[in-house]
């Protein structure tokens, strides 16, 4: 049976210390709720003595989250520990987390204390914390630059005083995996009472080794991982929770360990943090970056379309991402292009796909990424003229602060050469126009995106409207330009309508049994 590794999340404490990532009380509570849903074992909610806001955050998270352990960080001073316990007093599962540096460089320049003094302060702090709660964690700050024999002495002493978790942090991201493995192994061999405490690790990413070091420590016997969502934290950040969890899951053959994390909540957790802080992860970020499950190279795309396992070691769904994405660019192949056209509602024959691919590769040499409107332009301008079933003859809309928006629209049906007029009301003039068009065409569209931009300047500027409209589960784009924005909006919507109808006719002609159920009024 696999051993359990606890996940200690410090997003709300160490993570918040990352420049630009500070959170107010409501934001911390929102993030704490998501961490609870994610299934972390411990939430380090803050540093209570640091400020009134941090104190309030620890207190409120302790009141709200009853399943996970709630930890408060404290220095080894009575004032810190008392303040920490005051914040934690209503927690269902409280933990006091006290720390002091043990490296000679910190002792000399920061603390100006001797080794004996730091040892005494460590023991006194744990002893005092133990009076408030049975769950006490001790951290030897800058452990990886500490004298190893002295580190063993301190850890043994605090366990004797009642520490239930001993944290061996790589505070400045200095160590490497083999060295860290050796440190943990030495502690297990030389500290006589190490079996009475859980060894924890807290790694910083200054050399980009935080995750690798953490995993090396687990292999050596550590059973708690301290980490943050998106790897945020001081300087280059902390070990990334999502990377640690998925590494343990994907490589269970080499690391047979379990966590209590609900991995399907990983992406939501990442997005929640980004939404709160406004700091988004880089596109190539492992597990949660937008490119983590994106494929552009033609060889990769072909393989993934045949079987995901060819280039994906974990499924996007396993971390809460809906699906992978095939990114169209100059490295893409015919398989990916054909698949994208199918998703857009166009089943191209092989000769048509070959022709479209030639035009696509020329365009891809000029653009970094190809979008749906580019692909539609290839169809329309390159070889497959999309006919206009409906043309706008007239549009009139009224709106105001004290009147209901209404629209009158007249369309020409080029198939029957008839004109028809419809009226509708809406939340605004554009919405009213779209409702009227839906009545006249018999299509019910769902507006996904609506964008307006000025393409000329001055009071008579020409405005371009771009829309994404979904008809019966398939998305179509439309665009138009005019000095009258209502007119441009109507024409852009009709552009999407005509593409949807063209797609239906093509599928019917090709005998596709999965033709869309879109129907138009005859």
Structural topology:
Layout: E1 3-4, E2 6-9, H1 25-38, E3 42-46, H2 52-64, E4 69-75, H3 78-88, E5 94-101, H4 104-111, H5 115-132, E6 136-141, H6 148-160, E7 165-167, H7 177-190, E8 198-202, H8 210-220, E9 224-227, H9 241-250, E10 257-258, H10 266-277, E11 294-295, H11 298-306, E12 325-326, H12 334-343, H13 350-364, H14 372-383, E13 390-400, E14 403-413, E15 418-426, H15 429-441, E16 446-454, E17 463-471, E18 474-482, H16 485-509
Polypeptide structure, described:
- This protein is α/β, with parallel strands linked by helices and 522 residues long.
- It has 16 helices and 18 strands.
- It has helices at 25-38, 52-64, 78-88, 104-111, 115-132, 148-160, 177-190, 210-220, 241-250, 266-277, 298-306, 334-343, 350-364, 372-383, 429-441, 485-509; strands at 3-4, 6-9, 42-46, 69-75, 94-101, 136-141, 165-167, 198-202, 224-227, 257-258, 294-295, 325-326, 390-400, 403-413, 418-426, 446-454, 463-471, 474-482.
- The strands form 5 sheets. It has an 8-stranded parallel barrel, surrounded by 7 helices. The protein has a 3-stranded antiparallel beta sheet with strand order 13-14-15, with helices on one face.
- A hairpin with an 8-residue loop joins β16 (446-454) and β17.
């Amino acid at each position: 049976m696999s051993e359990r590794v606890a996940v200690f999340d410090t997003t709300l404490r160490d993570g918040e210390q990352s420049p630009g990532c500070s959170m107010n009380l409501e934001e911390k509570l929102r993030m704490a709720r998501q961490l609870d849903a994610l299934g972390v074992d411990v939430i380090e909610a803050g540093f209570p003595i640091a400020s009134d806001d941090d104190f309030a955050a620890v207190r409120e998270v302790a009141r709200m989250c009853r399943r996970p352990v709630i930890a408060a960080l404290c220095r080894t001073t009575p004032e810190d520990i008392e303040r920490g316990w005051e914040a934690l007093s209503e927690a269902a599962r409280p933990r006091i987390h006290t720390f002091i540096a043990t490296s000679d460089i910190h002792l000399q320049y920061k603390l100006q204390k001797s080794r004996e003094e730091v040892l005494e302060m460590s023991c006194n702090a744990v002893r005092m914390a133990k009076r408030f709660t049975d769950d006490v964690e001790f951290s030897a700050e800058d452990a990886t630059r500490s004298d190893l024999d002295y580190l063993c002495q301190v850890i043994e002493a605090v366990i004797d005083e009642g520490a239930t978790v001993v944290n061996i942090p790589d505070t400045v991201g200095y160590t490497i995996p083999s060295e860290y493995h050796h440190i943990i192994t030495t502690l297990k061999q030389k500290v006589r009472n190490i079996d009475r405490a859980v060894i924890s690790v807290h790694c910083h990413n200054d050399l980009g080794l935080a995750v690798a070091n953490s995993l090396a420590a687990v292999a050596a016997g550590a059973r708690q991982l301290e980490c943050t969502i998106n790897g945020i934290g001081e300087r280059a950040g902390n070990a990334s929770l999502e990377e640690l969890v998925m590494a343990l899951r994907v490589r269970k053959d080499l690391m047979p360990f379990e966590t209590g994390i609900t991995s399907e909540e990983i992406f939501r957790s990442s997005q929640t943090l980004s939404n709160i802080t406004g700091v988004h992860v880089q596109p190539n970020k492992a597990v949660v970056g937008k490119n983590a499950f994106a494929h552009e190279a033609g060889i990769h795309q072909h393989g993934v379309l045949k079987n995901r396992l060819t280039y994906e070691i974990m499924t996007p769904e396993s971390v809460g991402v809906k699906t992978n994405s095939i990114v169209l660019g100059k490295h893409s192949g015919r398989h990916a292009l054909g698949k994208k056209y199918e998703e857009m509602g166009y089943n191209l024959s092989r000769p048509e796909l070959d022709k479209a691919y030639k035009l696509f590769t020329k365009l891809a040499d000029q653009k970094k990424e190809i979008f749906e409107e580019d692909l539609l332009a290839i169809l329309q301008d390159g070889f497959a003229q999309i006919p206009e079933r409906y043309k706008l003859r007239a549009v009139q809309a009224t709106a105001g602060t004290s009147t209901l928006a209404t629209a009158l629209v007249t369309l020409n049906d080029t198939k029957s050469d008839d004109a028809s007029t419809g009226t509708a009301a809406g939340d605004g003039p554009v919405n009213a126009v779209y409702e009227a068009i839906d009545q006249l065409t018999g299509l019910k569209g769902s507006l996904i995106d609506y964008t307006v931009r000025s393409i000329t300047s001055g009071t008579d500027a020409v405005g371009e409207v771009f829309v994404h409209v979904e008809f019966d589960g398939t998305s179509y784009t439309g665009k138009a330009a005019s000095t009258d924005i209502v007119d441009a909006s109507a024409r852009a919507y009709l552009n999407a309508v005509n593409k949807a109808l063209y797609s239906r006719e093509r599928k019917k002609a090709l005998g596709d049994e999965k033709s869309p159920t879109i129907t138009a009024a005859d």
